[in-house]
């Protein structure tokens, strides 16, 4: 990763930065109210990668899940890097930084899901020493797994 790229853990004070993220970082246009709620929730985490001039190049977000019978777990919601900056080590740096934050917050498990045909993501997670689980089935309700609208 280029030394000019900085990783930044964001919080409620960074709403304007999040809203200024260019198209392609998030799946859909950012909803300001949802973004503010996400950044204000203590059980959510987000790390951004920024260029030297402050442009958002990538991100990762997670939800910390609490359980009554086990330690907290971190569910990685999404990881993304702008197309023009792929294959530069940005996603790997974001994830390594992000996993350290989740572990420091007491998460004893970190997990995520990706599509079987997402070779880039699967390669990234292997580089990060992720264990690929098999034999699970994903169920969804109310359109949670629907493709992005055209």
Write up what this structure looks like.
It is a single chain. With 150 residues, the protein is an alpha+beta fold. The protein has a single domain, classed as 3-Layer(aba) Sandwich (Aminopeptidase), CATH 3.40.630. The chain is built from 4 helices and 5 strands; from the N terminus they run E-H-H-E-E-E-H-E-H. It has helices spanning 15-19, 32-40, 90-104, 119-127, and strands at 6-9, 44-50, 56-65, 73-81, 109-111. 21% of the residues are buried.
Radius of gyration: 15 Å
| CATH-derived topology | Aminopeptidase
How many helices? The count is 4
Record the strand order, biggest sheet: 1-2-3-4-5
Topology:
Layout lengths: L5 E4 L5 H5 L12 H9 L3 E7 L5 E10 L7 E9 L8 H15 L4 E3 L7 H9 L23
Parallel strand pairs: 4-5
Antiparallel strand pairs: 1-2, 2-3, 3-4
